[in-house]
Amino acid sequence: MQKPGSAAIYARISSDQSGEALGVTRQLEDCRKLAADHGWTVGEEYVDNDISAFKGKPRPQYQRMLDDLAGGYRDAVIVYNMDRLTRQPMELEQFTRLCEQAGVTQVKSVTADIDLGNDDGLFMARILAAIASKESGRKSQRLQRKARQTAEQGLPNGGHHRPFGYEQDRMTVNEAEAEILRQAVARFLAGESSRSICVWLNEEGVQTTAGGQWQTMTLNAILKSGRIAGLREHKGIVVADAQWPAIITREQRQQILGHFETKRRTNTRAPRRYVLSGLLRCGKCGNKLFSAIRVDTRRYVCLSGPDHGGCGGIAIVAAPLEEFLAAGVLMRLDTIELSETLKGRRAADDRQSTLLESLEDDRNQMKELSELWAAKDISSAEWKAARGPIEARIKATERQLAQASNSTALDGLIGTGSQLKEQWETLNLDRQAAIIKAVLDYATIMPGTPGARSLDPARIQPVWQL
What we know:
GO terms for molecular function: DNA binding; DNA strand exchange activity. It comes from Pseudarthrobacter equi. By secondary structure, the protein is an alpha/beta fold. It has 3 domains: 141 residues, Resolvase, N-terminal catalytic domain (Rossmann fold, 3-Layer(aba) Sandwich); 92 residues, Putative Large Serine Recombinase, Chain B, Domain 2 (Hect, E3 ligase catalytic domain fold), CATH 3.90.1750; 141 residues, no CATH class. The protein has a 5-stranded mixed sheet, sandwiched between helices. A 3-stranded mixed sheet has the order 8-12-13. The longest helix is centred in the last third of the chain and has 39 residues.
């Protein structure tokens, strides 16, 4: 049999906890020795580190090797073991068909010599792939049961990077990071956007545990997680009290989830340059006013056309309007009426926390129900029968949440309007918008006098929430 002129060495390991690729390094060393013993020339080495061959995840280097085999650039394959090549019988059939079409018959492994060019070799390869697939399935089930048991005991799981706010043991609180998290939570509950908080963290030089900069997806995952509230989650469901100390209270976590739920329902985003975005209505047609710039002047305008649906008959300069309404909000913070009204809103906030807990429980139950059906523990008829009442409760709770309020943006601010007025310009746009939205429901802008060069307060008709 002719010696290969350009063999491919393929190495793979499913899990590399250390990140040092020691497993694939040992595989490569043994494969190189096997090539040398047979006098084969190695054309290239293909390595997929920390990627499973059982879960169906893409393996970039494996695919590149297949492309090179199909293109005639490689004429043999060396692996440490056949299960490094594939653990799926179907994938093995695809590999053998490709080798047959490309004329590749020599596939060697350190642990077994397989000749795909004859029936006996192909039969042996199929047996090895079937055994590997069955063992992977059993191992996956064992790991899932172990992970569930660990979670129910309130113990931490593993991972490449420690969770922010905790030491490497995932149990001990890192006080410096914990204080940063508490500040981030306070800012978020006060109305600041995740984007703005990430900017603050990056400007302060605070890095993630991976050593990178903060992004909203990373921050949001931490804010929503049960971990920082002393709760152990498994597949997104709280299953036990955690064995590690909490960084924030469970009440704060419910408030955080409430903010995210409100954002999801209303589909709102933080303002970028206009503090009154979404709060103004046209006095002619009732449509929402949009932000716009004419030359260097910021304005709020009623836009006509199919995308906006307004009449196009109202426009007002942004700066004096924002100053006027902000002054009105700050003045109301010092009134007795607002303090009394807020007491009622606090009760509504408590009600919201209860509703959120109920919503989370029902969503978790829905998820568990789906898992039971996927595992064939219940029939489709049983799944549909159980799903109906849960979906009805979820819809009812969401309707009640739509009517609930959240007044955390005003924590510590009642009676401080005069003092806050002096600090107003130092607050970022997110914080200003959160305070205004907590007090102002919306404002209708009436038509102005043609040629007027100053703001006419009579044009502004505010409707207060508090």
